[in-house]
Structure formats: C-alpha cells, structure tokens
Amino acid sequence: MSEKPVVLMPEDIQRVMGKDAQRNNILAARMVSEVVKTTLGPKGMDKMLVSPTGDIIVTNDGVTILEEIQIEHPAAKMMVEIARTQESEVGDGTTSSVMIAGKLLENAEKLLDSKIHPTLITKGYRMAAEKAQQILNEISLKISPDDDDVLKQVAMTAMTGKGAEDSREKFADIIIRAVKQIGDFHSSESTQSFERKQVQKNWKVDLDDIKIEKAKGDSVEKTELISGIVLDKEKVSNEMPEKIEGAKIALIDFPLEIKNPEIETKISISSPEQLQNFLSQEEKVIKDMVEKVAESGANVIFCQKGIDDFAQYLLSRKKIYACRRVAKSDLEKISKATGAKIVSNLGELKDVDLGKSEVVEEIKQGEDNMTYIRGCSNPKAVTILIRGGSEHVIDEIERAIKDGLGDVASSLKTGLVVPGGGAIEIELSKRLKHFGQSLGGREQLAVEEFASALEFIPLTLAENAGMDPIDVLTELKSKHNAGDMNAGLNLFENKVDNVLNAKIIEPYKIKSQAIASATEVAIMILRIDDVIASADSKSGKMNYAGSKGYQGMD
C-alpha cells in the first residue's frame, strides 16, 4: 500500500530555500544600494521621481528616494527600514547606511562562495561592528556647545551637494541659532562604580520645536529664522486688525460656537416668539464666550476648533485677531514660543495663561496669507521660513536644512564629531584589518570583508566626483598607514587632503548609527535560508519576488 503524500502548505504558497533564498535576498539588497549610490557626497547626482499622478520630486536624499519608489521585495524593504531608522535617529547619513549594508552583503557572498557558513560570517561581522564602535569612540573629537565654528562646519558639510550650495553659510548660521535657541542642558547621572557617581551635563534638543514653513516667491537667500512661529493661516475676518503690537495670546482648544448635539435632537417650536428666544439664547451664549476672552486681556486668539460667524463679528468689534482650525501641534509650538497655556475651558482663561510677543500680523506670501508671531522673548520653539522660486527648489532646500539640523543637534547631544570625506571609514578599515589578523578561525575573513566594505564610501565619493577611485583609495591608504588619520577626500578641490583643515566634519552619531544599522540588517538577511511567501488573497499575486530578481526597480 503506497504512502499518501503529506501536504504541509497550500498550492499557492511560493517557497525559496537554501542558496537560492540567500542569493536572491542579497541581490535585492545590493540593488537598493546601487540605486542610491550615485547620490552620495557633494558631487552626487540627483534623481527625478515621478509619481503615478505626475507629481515630480528632484532630490539626492537617500531616504526620500527609497520611500518614494515602490519596492516590493521583502529584503529590499528591510534596507529601506534602516534608512528610515537613520533618518529618525540622526536625520542624515541614510545613503551611507544603505550602501554599507549592501557592500557587507556583497562581500558576504564571496565568503559564501568559499563555503564559509553564514553563522561564521555573521559572528565575524558582529565582532567587527563591536570593534568598529570601540575604535570610533576612541578617535572621535570632543566639542562643546560653544564651538560655533565646528558646528557651522558640521552643518555646511551636511548641506553640501543638496541644492543649498550657494547659501550654505547663511543656512548654517540659521541652523545653529535655531538649535541653540530651543536646546538646553540637562543633567544625567552615570554610574562609574558602585561607590562613585558622576553627573554629566548633556545637551537636550527636540527638533520638533523647530517649525519649517515654506513660502513660494523671493529668492532662496531670503530664507530667515523667526523668533516665534509662522502659521499657514489667515485671520478669520477681514474686519480684524492686520497687525497687533504688544500681543497677548490666548490658546484655546474648544470651539467658539454652539456645539451640535452628539445624538439626533428635535426642537419643537410653536410660535415666532419661541424661535426668537431660541436664537437670542444662542447669541447670548456666544456673547458670553467672547466677553470672557476679552476680560482675560487677550487681543489674539488661536483656536483649535471652529469660530462662529457671530463670534467673528464680535471679536472684530473688540479688535481681537483670531485664527481658527489651528493644528494641535502648532498650538503646542506657539505655547513653547510665547509662554501661553492651552486652555480647555473658557471659565479658566486668566491673564496668567496668556502668551506674549511683540507683534502678531498677517502677511501675504504669494497667493496665500500667513500669520507671523514675532519677537517672543527666549522662545523654546522657532520657525525657519524657507523661500524659493519653485516648489521643487523649496522642497530640496527643506531636506538640506533638515539634514543640517539633524547633524548639529546630534553633535551637541553626543559632544562628538569625526573627520568627514571618507577619512573615518579608511581609518576604521585599517584598524579593523589589523584587529582581524589577531583572530583565529574563519571569523578573521569576515572581519576583513567588513573592513573592506567600509572602503566603499570613499571609493564612491571619488567615483561620483569624476576622480579615479583606485588611485584615490591607494593614496588614502598610504597616508593613513603613514599615521595621517585625518586624510580624506576634499571634493571642493578634488584632492586627498587633511579634512579637518579643510573643515569637512561630520557628527560621530551618523557613523555610529550607520555601522550599527547596516550590520544588523546584513546579519538578518544572511541568516535567512528559507522564504515562504503567500499569495495576495485579492490579486493572487505573490508577496515575494522569488527567483526572478528584484521587482519594483525594473
């Protein structure tokens, strides 16, 4: 009697095992790395991304590219995830992290071809990553919040090659002033031993407190830092004053209108007098609301909800400036900038709850009206108003400024920076190769391949600048072997130079996070030897690209 076949999974399940699964995942990850490779560095090229609806984005920002293109392969999606992590943790270095991960997997493929087991490769990669972090800590340079020149160079390095070249000095000044305005020291206890505690002062920065507003028109040079908040809102009535000096600001998160009943309600009216009494009662409620606002001394209101037409009329008569439907996040920023408290009950609105600023005014920007809150004393939330001739230019300037903000904030938080221009990668590679030679077993080969993967960054920087990558890499290695650990690529002059003297400086956190994220995703992909993909129940399409290669980037 013949045995019945055992059916584990439905027929529409696609399964890729062993070497096929590994090679397919590695290929997909490498292709993601290849997509962003040409955007690296100050001489990197831009990508034009066109959406199905015809929207156009022109950028060389790694995470923007990877988020906008439609990626289907699961291993490739893991690569996009490390770019997102890099963006959220530091705000810059997304391209580098993806490239290092891609190169680690490419080099791992060589070891797999040499019959080295993935477990040994991942063990070697972990050892190399730990050693790299240790070396990075040793050779980083300490800075303080008073080192404005260094912070300026960090910001300018971050913005180089991102469409902000001509104005990067001005933008760097704006970024440093903004970060220092909202930042503050906080003390944290670090336990050195059981007997002794050391109190450290760390710089605390929340970049959400820097509002970035965009206005089309004027040149990029007119971009400015405002000690207060700019809202993409206009006053609710033309009868209201356009400008309030000595503003006393009330922030309210309830409507200045009669609330509609939450359940269906019927009102029975049997005479004109009853109707008139009903309408009069509504007017009285709104009048009382406006009176309470006026009694508090407020001459400016920002309301999270709606403002009734009758309330608008009454506020106009009292010369009170009002904006409605203001986002809660904007109310919180105004609160931090002006010192106002967000009030949920009109009965609780008092003079002490009001914020103060020198001026609140409505200004026309192109076709739109915007509300400016200026002249706040020691605001803990500020606005960078970006101007430019077209939306594409403004969007790219915004991405450049966000990179600069992330880099400066990261440098202040850790108090550490490293030489840029590929210098740190070459130094790490050199020291890791030396570390690898001290190891026994096959892990040594994995450590050496990890070290070689880091050289991919300076190699690509040179290639994107039109220099000969082999010659550049040889010269860099020669200088580092001779003890010049600050030798890197000065792409402003297309030569190998002392990058600290050339003022090419990057935050320590960018390199630390990139190495950590890239190693983690490379190890995760290498450990996968079986991919089981189910079909989409609606389309019948597999959720995995299988052996056909990487879909979504054809």
Q: Would you report the number of β strands? A: 21
Please count the helical segments.
16
- Superfamily (CATH H level) name of the largest domain: GroEL-like equatorial domain
CATH architecture of the largest domain: Orthogonal Bundle
Estimate the mean pLDDT confidence: 82
The coarse silhouette is elongated
Structural class: alpha+beta
CATH class of the largest domain: Mainly Alpha
Helical coverage, percent range: 40-55%
Rg: 29 Å
Could you walk me through the main structural features you see in this protein, from its secondary elements to its overall organization?
It is a single chain. This protein is an alpha+beta fold and 554 residues long. The chain has 3 domains: 238 residues, GroEL-like equatorial domain (GROEL, domain 1), CATH 1.10.560; 119 residues, 2-Layer Sandwich (GROEL, domain 2), CATH 3.30.260.10; 140 residues, GroEL, CATH 3.50.7. 45% of the residues lie in helices and 19% in strands. The chain is built from 16 helices and 21 strands. The strands form 7 sheets. Strands 9, 10, 11, 12, 13, 14 and 15 form a 7-stranded mixed β-sheet that branches. A 3-stranded antiparallel β-sheet has the order 4-17-20. β18 and β19 form a beta hairpin. α1 packs antiparallel against α4, α5 runs antiparallel to α16 and α12 packs across α15. The longest helix has 24 residues. The chain is elongated, with a radius of gyration of 29 Å. The C terminus is likely disordered.
